[in-house]
Specification:
Elements lengths: L4 E4 L16 E4 L4 E3 L4 E11 L4 E6 L2 H7 L1 E3 L4 E3 L6 E8 L5 E3 L4 E9 L28
Length: 143
C-alpha cells in the first residue's frame, strides 16, 4: 500500500474504499450544481494530493451513476500525474435527456492509484514481426 499526502480544502470526508476488495476510492463533489442534458462541467472535489513518483491517480466513472443517470467521466480514465499539485476536479458529462442535480457530498467518480513507468523511445526503421502484424480494429472477428 502506498501513502498519499492529502490537503482537504473542502467540507467532504477523505476518499475511502467501500469494501476490502474495492479497487477505487470514491471522490465526492465539493459543490452543488445542475448538469444539463448533453452538458459537461468540471466538478471540484476540494482535494489536493501528492501522489508519489511512479504512480498515477486514474479518475473513472461510477458504474451506478452511469447506468442509472447516464452521468459519466468524459475523459475516462482521467490521469492525475505525480507532479500535479492543483485541486482534483472531475470532468463529468450528462448523456441523458434530463438535467441532473449533483449535491455537495455526492459520490461522483472513483479514483484508482496505479503504478506507472515512463518509457524510453528508441527510433527504428523496422520492428520485429508478429503473428498479428498490422491487424487492427476488428481483425479477429466476433466469434
Amino acid at each position: 500500500m502506498v501513502n498519499i499526502k492529502v490537503i482537504n480544502k473542502g467540507e467532504q470526508k477523505l476518499p475511502e474504499y467501500k469494501t476490502s476488495g474495492s479497487a477505487g476510492m470514491d471522490l465526492r463533489s465539493d459543490i452543488e450544481i445542475t448538469l444539463g442534458p448533453g452538458c459537461r462541467t468540471l466538478v471540484p472535489t476540494g482535494l489536493v494530493m501528492s501522489i508519489p513518483k511512479g504512480y498515477e491517480g486514474q479518475i473513472r466513472p461510477r458504474s451506478g451513476l452511469a447506468f442509472t443517470n447516464a452521468i459519466t467521466v468524459l475523459n475516462s480514465p482521467g490521469t492525475i500525474d505525480s507532479d500535479f499539485r492543483g485541486e482534483i476536479q472531475v470532468l463529468l458529462i450528462n448523456l441523458s435527456n434530463t438535467a441532473f442535480l449533483i449535491h455537495r457530498g455526492d459520490r461522483i467518480a472513483q479514483m484508482i492509484i496505479s503504478r506507472c513507468e515512463q518509457a524510453n523511445l528508441i527510433e527504428m526503421d523496422a520492428l520485429d514481426k508478429t503473428e498479428r502484424g498490422f491487424g487492427g480494429y476488428g481483425h479477429t472477428g466476433v466469434e
